[in-house]
Amino acid sequence: MTEPEESGLQGLHADSTDAEIMSYTATQSSDTRRFPAAPPRFWVVFIKEGGDQARFWSVVENRGQIAYDDIRRAFDVVESDHMADLRKQLVIGWKSPRTWRMNASTAASYPVIGIADAEPIAFPGFDRLVLSHVQLQAVMREHRYASWRTALSSVVGICLITDTSDGRHYVGKADGAESVRQRWNAYATNGHGGNVELRRVDPKNFRFSLLQVFDPSTPTRDLDAAEGHFKDALDSRRDGLNRN
Fold first, then answer.
1. What pTM, to 2 d.p., does this model score?
2. Domain 126-233: which CATH class?
3. For the chain, what are the domain ranges?
4. pLDDT the model gives residue 28
């Protein structure tokens, strides 16, 4: 993988999406001392997990270089089926935490720590959820957040999206047959959930939280009243992202 400090790219983290990991992997250094002039066809990608271990993400196939400048080289890479049954489960020891690329002969000496799903993360409670868009995508996708999805499936309620670039608010509701999980999954997928005003804003600036949750049997009129109250309290119609 490319070193962020020398490539100009932002590094990866535990909540990086698959698309971000693939984009990051496809971009490598132009310095042949850092990355080979003729890289191999298949690359095995691991993501750092803790200070001395890494989790297997996938094997990608390098189909050739497609762009080049003095700093970066871009490659056409696609996920392959190699080791598909071990994706996101195989954990190895990482003897040199600062080493971002190694040859197969070196990697072969790294020990297998285990084959297991990522450690689950306990649900913090509805009143303590504050998630960036990247974090929301991880919650909707990763096994370690399974208990969060179960909790969010059990309630309807009033949701708050804050545009952290300017502080504007959007107040919305998940009601009827749509749980908070379903509503937030739509936001995780496309950033706007079908809302016209949110389409104009970059979701990377969004922060998601819950203002109030209700039992799914709560009458729609009560949810409408709560939504209206929070729109007034946060002035999200006049100075925010709500159109009505």
1. 0.61
2. alpha beta
3. 4-115, 126-233
4. 93
